[in-house]
Amino acid sequence: MKRLIVVFTFILFNLFSAYYWFFYESEKNEFKDEVMTVIGDQLQKEMQGLLKETEANFKSLRNDCSSFNFDFETCNSYFLQYFDNNKLSRSFLLKKNQFKFLIQQDQDSYISAFDSTQNIDVVNWKRFVNGKEISQWNEIFSDDDYQLQWINDLGKESEDFFWTDKVLSQNNQSNLIIGESWIEGSNHWTLLSRFSYQTLRDRLSFLKSYEVFRVILETSNNQMIFLSNNLSGSADTIIDSDSFRQFYKAKFLENEKETLVTFRFNERNTWAAIRPIDGSLNIKKVIISMPESSIQSIQETDQLSDIFFFILGLIISFFAIWFIFRPKTFKRASISATSSLSINDILEENENRYLEFKSSLRWDYKQEKVNPDLEFVIIKTIAAFGNSDGGTLLIGVDDDKQILGLGADYQTLKKPGADYFEIYSRNLFHKYFGVKYTTKNIRMSFLKDNTKEVCMVEVFKANEPVYIKYKDKSGLMGEKFFVRSGNSSQQIDSLKDINDYIYERFKKKD
To answer: Which of 269, 336, 356, 375 has the most C-beta neighbours closer than 10 Å?
Structure first.
């Protein structure tokens, strides 16, 4: 019953889904301007949170850096501990006057160095894993290698936050860098942080379905910072970025309001959502732009996904209905497999070639007395199972699968109860089948349903023909041969038919 309820619930859910898809989703037309409005609002929310978190981090870093000794051991220990608790940045450069400390993530390790900013210098690099130094090496470099003059010039004009998306390394990898410069007494400090692209991808994961897009930050001094170009972190789209930067400045730079615009760029229809930022870290606007084809592609993908899951739901519903109403057969490959079954488990099946229900062993419910003929009905059922493919007989259950129990049979015995019922039954089986066959091919067990007991007789497929000996009306001994036919036990009368069956069932070789 529980299985029936679960399956019907599943079917109703799929029918409701089908109704919803046909009468609501199929009529729903999500316009491109609507999609871009939602994306712009979500991007504004995510960037606002990201910038506030970064601003709080920089405030804490500035206070800490100004208070500790500016040497390699102190800086290295501090930033290694900082990386353990903060995944937003992947590298830092801390500069005090003409000296600088640099630490950056390199796969699963961190490398760091402390040097001066002379035009030619020898830098001692050290690699750390889990806070422990594992190697070190020296490197000679010049301004051309790392653009040190650009670093030296940072923050000279004012004490403020500044941004760059310059290519700063020899492998031509693009970077999103935020910096802050401040003067404290006679010391000029500069702190640079390079964002982790993995963190940006995680924070802006709602964009991952779109093939092409640009996310741009506009600073208070109208500088255009490319936060990402498909969140790849690579420089393969720098030329495109610069081209779009110039295009945006010419068309939309003066627009200070939240807006949605469409335009032609690189011969493609393009949409852009422009959203204001509250001024955190000198950022006043965030812009997301993507070609119209990218929006349309994801809409078509969503529709295909809806259709796929709708069809899948129909297929699963079909098999669920078939599973409930299929012709049921009860077959056990081995008798031991039924030992863990309950009465209700077995009663989920109907009577069939492998399953038979009998109300009692010897008590006749219609005549309300002991009827020895009922014992012979049990015997012929067991013989039929043996001559066929084996099966299970439940004694104490009527044809309508109502559990009657064995109480009436118990009262006909010298000692009421399951133990004496089994002894009586086995003696009956010995009489008709012999001790050897009964021991080898018949198993008996008792199942309980509340206060009622049912006897389960499990019969193996016999290796030799099973005959039932009996006396006819004249007292002469004879034999009967029974087999299973559908959900009943049938006698084969013709000697020829018996021989043919025995040949096919017991003697025929493959």
So the answer is: 356
Same domain, residue pair 21 and 69? yes
> Tokens 């017991």 map to which residue?
506
What is residue 483's three-state secondary structure? strand
Q: Are 30 and 296 in contact (CB under 8 A)?
A: no
**27-65: pLDDT as tens digits:** 445 678 888 888 889 988 988 888 888 888 888 888 888
Provide the percentage of residues in the chain whose pLDDT is more than 70. 70
| Helix boundaries (H) for 326-417 | 343-347, 372-387, 407-410
Q: Which tens digits make up the pLDDT trace of 264-289?
A: 877 788 888 888 887 678 888 888 88
Structural domain contains residue 96: yes
304 assigned to some structural domain? no
Q: Is the pTM of this model over 0.70?
A: no
In a domain, residue 81? The reply is yes
Q: Is the same domain home to 245 and 384? A: no
- Using the 3D structure, point to which of 271, 298, 325 is the last residue of a domain: 298
43 Cβ partners below 8 Å, 6+ apart? Answer: 204, 207, 215, 273, 275, 286, 288
- Residue (of 126, 120, 119) closest to 104 by Cα position: 126
Domain count, the chain: 2
Cα–Cα distance between 36 and 34 in angstroms, integer? Answer: 6
The answer to whether position 330 is within a domain reads: no
On whether the CB atoms of residues 480 and 471 are closer than 8 A, the answer is: no
Distance (Å) of CA 64 to CA 59, 312, 401: 9, 58, 80
The CATH number for 367's domain is: 3.30.950.30
Q: In 277-380, where do the E strands start and end? A: 283-291, 355-358, 363-364, 369-370
CA dist 201 → 164, 177, 206 (Å): 19, 16, 9
Question: CA–CA distance from 139 to each of 106, 115, 124, 328 (Å)?
Answer: 16, 11, 6, 79
Same domain, 293 and 341: no
The Cα–Cα gap between 305 and 209 comes to: 13
Domain span including residue 346: 335-507
CA distances from 485 to 117, 354, 419 (A): 98, 10, 32
